[in-house]
Design brief:
The chain is mostly helical. Helix content is 60%, strand content 0%. The protein is built from two helices and no strands. The longest helix has 29 residues. The radius of gyration is 30 Å and the shape is rod-shaped.
Length: 57
Amino acid sequence: MSLVMIIAMLVCGWLAVAAAMLWGVLRIARRHHHHPPAQPAPLVKTEESSARHANAH
């Protein structure tokens, strides 16, 4: 094997290992990512509820 072929195979092997490690890290990160709970729909205020005074005391 020529020196150029050895170096090219070394670089290709390194890239393959780096891609596999990156794929594994991203796979684990996606699995452990916690999504925030879904926000409930905002309640529509009616005139009746907005006209009342709040009990502050």
